[in-house]
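Re: your question from the hallway

Yes, I did run it. Sequences:
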Amino acid sequence: MRIILLGNIGVGKGTQAKRLSDAHGICHISTGHILRKHVQKDTGIGKEAKKYLDKGLLVPDETVCKLVAERLDDPDCRKGYVLDGFPRSLPQAQALERILMDRQEEIDSVIQITVPEEEIVERLTARRSCPKCGAVYNLKFNPPKDDEVCDQEECEGQALVQREDDKEETIRDRFHVYEQKTKPILAFYAQRGILHKVDGSGLAPDAVFEKIESIVSEHGVV
Ligand code: AMP
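Structure:
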């Protein structure tokens, strides 16, 4: 099964991608996560990417496409994968087509999750994550047991952090990037007849996942 999760920032792509990955034993590929790891490790790619991540701008297409192509070569991707946060521009969608052609693979479904912008701002400004294990919490909707501290025992009371790009003014810039660069991809996949929409407004992650699963069982190769 090969799925792309599309949608504005903060609509819950990461949460739903993790669920799909757990439920179907497929690989979860988040370009944001891969890039943040590079930044954390201070690699060459990380040094370059940080400038873009901090401002909420897109990292150059070439860099991201190379990272995805390499990741798809890993053995755990053979059973399938869910792409989260990629592609994010028309050139990336076109590059992905070439990558998939070389691999003789096809995307089964592209699922777009929609949530109104004001609801996204409310969600993202309350998002916190553990810098040790990467677990993601939401202070309003999915709070940790103890105040702003990771629940995982092995993280030993690690304080949660807010992503630099989840501050309100950066969120507004990222909406703009989504409108300009990412939205054109929707027509690209609609033309191919594989785009499906899920309205996630006001819904808890379980309810959104139920909708996604029904699309996957109808259109995905399970
Ligand atoms: P995300 O975790 O998906 O919200 O991504 C966080 C940040 O990583 C984005 O704001 C971009 O700076 C960068 N990023 C993630 N995925 C991509 C992509 N496909 N193309 C370019 N930049 C990306």
